[in-house]
Write a structure and sequence with these properties.
The complex is a heterotrimer of chains A (260), B (154) and C (270). By secondary structure, chain A is mainly α. Chain A is built from eight helices and no strands. With 154 residues, chain B is α/β, with parallel strands linked by helices. The mean pLDDT of chain B is 82. The chains are: A mainly alpha (260), B alpha/beta (154), C alpha/beta (270). The interface between A and B is medium-sized, with 37 and 30 residues.
Chain lengths: 260, 154, 270
């Protein structure tokens, strides 16, 4: 019994220590804001993390918008309220689905790749040798990736929303015959730029920080073996998914919970 | 070197697309207008009951959106609702003095908005004027109540 | 060449988790010479290099390079100090997203503001010295192990350091590239007046180029001397290592229970 309590205590200490290390790590890295000479490194990571994730995010957004419209239509048409379809599609996308689903896809597509890439650089001693050359790998390797993640996920989220709303338009208006004017009109009268678009973007910015942080830290902190890399990659996806979903609840409660 | 130029181009397009997407979300989805505040003029209208009308609701004329409700407050002198509307600037001086404002509902359960219809008075409404002739929102519960009491009294 | 040693390690203690890796190591490495640090696998030779390079911090003891304590430097001063050191990693550790040319140019680009033409000249000079000027457009993935190590050597020399640390430079090389590397280390040391520290367990090759040898086992320096008069027989462990005997004080068997009882135990459980 006592040994169990002890092992619980040890785990608690380990967890706190890991959190502390992760905090110091991100603080030391994030000061490496992309400068003029580091610009090309940042561009490369933006490409790697953002442009290459664009396809999967946009395709998912299109389908999710289409499904939302289809489901929403069958529900709303019972109340004769199908003209509220645009409002429903836009609000669910902007407030919830775009930030959350884009963050989950980002964790799977870009986060795991970041972990594996940094992990491989660690395993092949590239990070050590960079240190011995007198270059701080936190600045050179980690910081551009961190900042690229911070910037790209909100952009991807915007893309997700736009494509999703268009997908809802395709299904709702073009296929199911909702009046086009009421699709856009209801949307426009109910969506608030700051309250909905803005809060959605704040969510996605928070998710961007958390997911990129987890991914990069897992890569930097892993055991440099092939098994260690594969485990860290899995951990990145699991931890960031849980963190995104948990934080989403907290953020939603803060942003929208007090309303109505 | 050519590859990195392509990369820069890709990232540039990516960021541009993100910004355009944000503009789309602003204009098309949240219905913000690019018009500067100077291009609008204010009208006020008092209603006995506004029902479910909310700030930012549409103001229409013949079904065309011509403005928005900017704020709603209680008029403490008359105990009715004073609705302040922002209309397109080019309508200033072109709405007759006996214009009527009615709170309408889109569909049976849809959002509520204000419909303006022009009368025949040669004098026109200017910035800050009040629309005299208003028609309150139709509140469904009251309609049903009237209907039921009519049946009972019959 | 001065008499004061360039690198001094004093009474170094280091442990990882519960295992003590070093229990009081003293080294003094003379300027301009090749010093070899040898010992069986798992004695922490790579760890020792990382301690000298300041990547790890000892539990107690000091490492002085040119009279300065490596571990009491600020982060910035440490990075400045490392410009005067080169390190050749076991795997080469070339940056996999940069070409051979860019790998060698990397330290120059980071630490100097030289014009592009001069960087090009310097890089080609370094690559010529390791015989790989023709391979400058290749990516690290296209190189053989020996070539990768030579490129890494060119990169380590790019800033003309005073000290080069070699981590197992001969491991996993065929006899030809091993010979090439031995020659390179020797020649570079003589030509540039470098101080070199070679960590290795390849006795024959190391002894041919080393000026002075330390043998480390069990977390301590077991023997040291010039290759010719290294008293290999003063300690049975050193003698076993140098002569390559499979069993001795360094046991062939990983610690285990008695073989006989182990076998019987398993039989009983079946």
């Amino acid at each position: 019994m006592i040994t169990r309590i002890m092992s619980l205590g040890r785990r608690g200490c380990d967890l706190l220590e890991a959190l502390g290390r992760a905090g110091i790590f991100v603080a030391q890295s994030a000061v490496g804001v992309p400068s003029r000479e580091g610009w090309h490194l940042w561009v490369r990571q933006m490409h790697f993390v953002g442009v290459l994730s664009l396809a999967i995010v946009l395709v998912s957004g299109l389908f999710i918008g289409m499904v939302l419209a289809l489901q929403g239509y069958t529900l709303l048409v019972d109340f004769g309220a199908e003209q509220a379809l645009g409002q429903m599609v836009a609000l669910s996308l902007l407030r919830e689905l775009a930030p959350v689903v884009a963050a989950l896809l980002f964790a799977g597509r870009a986060g795991s790749a970041l972990t594996a890439e940094i992990g491989l650089m660690k395993a092949t001693e590239q990070l050590s040798s960079m240190e011995m050359i007198g270059v701080d790998p936190l600045r050179r390797v980690v910081a551009p990736r961190l900042w690229a993640g911070f910037v790209t996920l909100p952009l991807l989220t915007i893309g997700f929303s736009v494509v999703g709303i268009y997908g809802g338009y395709l299904v709702g208006v073009e296929w199911l015959g909702v009046f086009e004017g009421s699709y856009w009109g209801n949307m426009q009268s109910s969506v608030e730029f700051v309250g909905d678009v803005g809060n959605g973007l704040i969510k996605s910015l928070v998710f961007a920080v958390v997911v990129t942080w987890i991914a990069v830290f897992q890569g930097y902190d892993l055991v440099p073996t092939s098994e260690g890399i594969s485990r860290a990659t899995t951990r990145t996806v699991v931890y960031s998914s849980l963190a995104v979903l948990g934080l989403d609840f907290v953020l939603t409660a803060v942003m929208f919970g007090g309303l109505s | 070197m050519k590859r990195s130029k392509m990369m820069e181009l890709g990232v540039g397009l990516f960021m541009l697309a993100g910004i355009l997407g944000l503009v789309f979300l602003g204009l098309r989805v949240s219905g913000m207008t690019l018009q500067a505040p100077g291009d609008t003029f204010r009208l006020e209208a008092n209603f006995a009951n506004i029902g479910g009308l909310k700030p930012r609701a549409r103001v229409t004329m013949a079904g065309v959106t011509v403005g928005r409700v900017s704020s709603i407050e209680l008029d403490a002198d008359w105990y009715d609702a004073r609705v302040i509307m922002e209309l397109q600037g080019d309508l200033e001086g072109r709405l007759s003095r006996d214009t009527t404002a009615a709170i309408l509902t889109a569909g049976l359960l849809g959002e509520q908005y204000i419909g303006l219809s022009v009368g025949g008075d040669p004098e026109t409404l200017a910035n800050g004027d009040t629309v005299r002739d208003t028609q309150s929102a139709i509140v469904l519960e009251e309609l049903i109540q009237q209907f039921v009491s009519n049946i009972v009294s019959d | 060449m001065s008499d004061t040693p360039f690198v001094v390690v004093e009474n170094l203690y280091f442990s990882r988790g519960d295992t003590e890796i070093f229990r009081g190591v003293d080294l003094s490495i003379p300027r301009g010479k090749i010093t070899a640090i040898m010992g069986p696998s798992g004695t922490g030779k790579t760890t020792l290099l990382k301690l000298i390079g300041g990547q790890l911090t000892p539990d107690s003891g000091r490492v002085l390079i040119g009279g300065e304590d490596v571990h009491s430097q600020s982060r910035r001063a440490l990075f400045a100090m490392r410009r005067r050191m080169g390190m050749l990693f076991q795997s080469g550790a070339l940056f996999s997203d940069l070409s051979v040319f860019e790998n060698v140019a990397f330290p120059l680009r980071v630490h100097t503001d030289l014009p592009e033409a001069m960087i090009r000249d310097l890089v080609l000079m370094k690559l010529e010295a390791v015989g790989l000027r023709g391979a400058r457009e290749l990516m690290p993935a296209e190189l053989s192990g020996g070539m990768a190590r030579r490129v890494a050597l060119a990169r380590a020399m790019a800033l003309d350091p005073e000290l080069i640390l070699y981590d197992e430079p001969f491991v996993g090389q065929d006899p030809i590239s091993m010979g090439v590397l031995v020659q390179l280390i020797k020649r570079l040391n003589e030509a540039l007046g470098l101080t070199s520290i070679v960590v290795s367990h390849d006795i024959k090759e190391t002894l041919t180029i080393a000026d002075y040898v330390y043998v480390i086992a069990d977390g301590k320096v077991m023997a040291h001397g010039t290759p010719r008069n290294l008293d290999v027989d003063q300690d049975p462990r050193v003698s076993q290592f140098v002569h390559g005997e499979p069993d001795g004080p360094v046991p062939f068997h990983y610690p285990a229970a008695d073989f006989h009882t182990d076998i019987l135990d398993a039989g009983g459980r079946r």
